[in-house]
Amino acid sequence: MAKQKPTLNVVFVGHVDHGKSTTIGRLMFDSGKVSPEEMEKLKAEAQKHGKAGFEFAFVMDKFKEERERGVTIDLAYQKLLTNKYEVTIIDAPGHKDFVKNMITGASQADCAFLTISAKDGVQPQTKEHVWLLRTMGVGQVAVVINKMDAVEYKEDAFKKTVTEVSAVLKMAGYKPDTMTFLAVSGFKGDNVAKKSTNMSWYKGPTILEQLDLFAPPEKPTTLPLRMPLQDVYEITGIGTVPVGKIETGIMKIGQKVLILPGRSGKGIEGEVKTIEMHHEQLPAAEAGDNVGINIRGIGKKDVARGDVVCDATKPATIAEEFVAQVAVISHPTVIAKGYTPVFHVRTAQVPCQFIELIEKTSPDGQTAKNPDFLKNGDVAKVRIKPIGNLVLESQATNPHMARFAIRDAGATVAAGVCIEVKAKKL
Questions:
Q1: Where in the sequence is the domain holding 359, given as residue range(s)?
Q2: Is 323 in the same domain as 397?
């Protein structure tokens, strides 16, 4: 068997209706992943629903319904082979109700395409998504300036959007001058898989070419095993199958694992019986792989989404309390001591309380010890107490298990990273 190409997990993010699904659908079609016959069917389907022109978006959405039926393990994602990689494409919902899934999508991604309509420019969600990508540690981001057909393929419209989005990227700590901005029309197919003939001024790559320009993700295989669970399935003939992406380390058959916090909150011991990726049984899997596993001694009631499979000899910590560096992105008022929003760490969601505001730096660079409150733009060192069991590690121990997003009333209010953690006694 030929050596498998390295895997690259790519997430498409962006404001609702800025054309993510259409662009991905077009990429699948133009690269031969979806047949012309299938496309005709989707076109008819789109017209039937009064959604003419949505056929490309239906390519991704068609997988959603298959996904809801839970037929197989890796349908949520689309596979695409490029010259260099086996790419897994994650279509992250742009609608604000779906930001939860977007956080999960971003937390599984090695790199991202931020999609912005040249017609509408930067929107509130665009800013939120940029911060989330940053917090989730997605270092490689390319920007798709989409709907170029709607601005008559004009270079100045492209440049205006590039300037606008660069300011947002800079604020989040990205370096726009090192990033690629692509001029695209997902609907018409300009610079998706094929070079456009409508923009002779554009000299950059197509989306398909850009996939191969992303650097291969570093595999943190030297760190201990950590696999946050995305879902837990019951599969006939196999039993309970937890599914997720291995964040760090290596998993082998026969390995002793501890699943934290588990239903009991004290962790559950088990042994890896089988590992499956893309319907193939594997003897081992490593950081970066999305896998389904079966663990001896673990039933469906024992574990849930958000739990973390750890190496039993080097388990992660369940936090009694922790100190974190937090950036306030968009809180409607101010954050004070006692505030208890929901923290999203990888696939886990746990309410946590701010118990001490240690110090803050405001956007103008002024610092203050023990401030009374935090507002938008502040970066602060804070002490937090989880109300429930939260698996978390410090940035120094395992950066992949240290980042989180903070959400409240359906919006991302802040994002941060854990710098020290006091472990709960189990």
A1: 317-423
A2: yes
